[in-house]
Amino acid sequence: MITSQFNNVLAALAGAERIFDMMDQPPENDGGRTTLARVDNADEWVWKKSDGETVPLRGDVRFHNVDFAYEPGKPVLHQVSLYAKPGQVIAFVGSTGAGKTTITNLINRFYDVQTGSITYDGIDVRDIRKESLRRSLGMVLQDTHLFTGTVLDNIRYGRLDASDEECIEAARQASAHSFISRLPEGYHTVISGDGANLSQGQRQLLAIARAYVADPPVMILDEATSSIDTRTERLVERGVQALMRGRTVFIIAHRLSTVRNANAIIVLEHGQIIERGNHEQLLAQKGRYYQLYTGKNQLE
Ligand SMILES: Nc1ncnc2c1ncn2[C@@H]1O[C@H](COP(=O)(O)OP(=O)(O)OP(=O)(O)O)[C@@H](O)[C@H]1O
Ligand SMILES: [Mg+2]
Fold it and tell me: How many domains does the chain have?
């Protein structure tokens, strides 16, 4: 699916600080010369290269022998290669510190690759202006940052020109509508910046609704690990499933239910891909994934 309605989008970034961080980047300084542009009179988006050539926005993401270190001499990723075709769901599993979040940090250019490359629709991401890149990516991260304002405004943050109806529809799709309806003032309930008057699961549901309203072709989901009540958990699961449909998705999954249906599961250890395949293939292999799967019902 190529996304619709991208005007004035500040992609569904989960954190306000990151928005400001991104706005602070002087565009001429981030190395990117390719920008996202809307095709006149059409609901289509293209990458516009510095030489004027245009490439359709599709959501094809590939890693080519990527090595990365946050600090010199301390490599975190080694020779990571992977290929996400538009619409595919790629799940990452592996122990804590394995490098899962680091992989997503490179896709959105929070950090730049040092060796190897990442291409997005065939373009090296380092050549894409950060602001354009992040507009094409949605993120639902472990901690959802909300700002002080109404529920509706917090959802609209995904796309600033979205109408009330569009925000409410997004909340329905995200399975957030029922809890919002039960709030004292419904969609007009003011939530505090730290989201203290909402449960963690409810904050996640808002983050999903926010991403839904932005409607980006590529989604990065970093599932929260802390436990939420079973009912909300089920809603989050349903919301995530709905959000994934028709997009390229990178999901750092802690729930087996999400992993099972992924097109490809990538098992990382110490920054290296040690296994890859779908659920059945990896189980048959009886390796690390099998161990994680049969050991307990939660991946970590
Ligand atoms: N900003 C940073 N600066 C320096 N080192 C970092 C930074 N972020 C992560 N690391 C290191 O990189 C390695 C990979 O971390 P990463 O966050 O990618 O792991 P992860 O697989 O996402 O783990 P978890 O399941 O706990 O979220 C770890 O050794 C971590 O300490
Ligand atoms: Mg992580």
Answer: 1
Residue to mutate, 67, 68, 96, ligand 1, most ligand atoms under 8 Å from C-beta: 96
Nearest C-alpha to atom 24 of ligand 1 is from which residue?
96
Using a 6 Å cutoff on CB, does residue 298 contact ligand 1?
A: no
Q: Any idea what the CATH number is for the domain that residue 279 is in?
A: 3.40.50.300
For ion ligand 2, residues whose CB falls within 5 Å = 100-101
Consecutive H or E run containing 35: strand 35-38
pLDDT attached to residue 145: 82
Domain-located, residue 1: no
Does the beta carbon of 96 lie inside 6 Å of ligand 1? Answer: yes
Q: Three-state secondary structure along 100-147?
A: HHHHHHHHCCCCCCCEEEEEECCEEHHHECHHHHHHCEEEECCCCCCC
What pLDDT score does 16 carry?
Answer: 42
Per-residue burial over 183-222, b = 16 or more CB atoms within 10 Å of its CB, e = otherwise: beeebeeebeeebeebebbbbbbbbbbbbbbbbbbbbbbb
Least confident of 27-36, 56-65, 86-95, 237-246: 27-36
Query: What does the pLDDT look like over 225-251, one tens digit per residue?
Result: 666 788 888 898 899 999 999 999 999
Percentage of the chain with pLDDT > 70? 88
> Has residue 155 been placed in a domain?
yes
Residue 133 domain boundaries:
16-295
229 against 181, higher pLDDT = 181
Lowest mean per-residue pLDDT among 27-36, 96-105, 117-126: 27-36
Ligand 1 proximity of 154 Cβ (cutoff 6 Å): no
183: DSSP letter? S
Amino acid (1-letter code) at residue 259:
V
* Pocket of ligand 1 contains residue 76 by CB under 6 Å: yes
Mean model confidence pLDDT for the chain: 86
In a domain, 138, yes or no: yes
Does any domain span residue 9? no
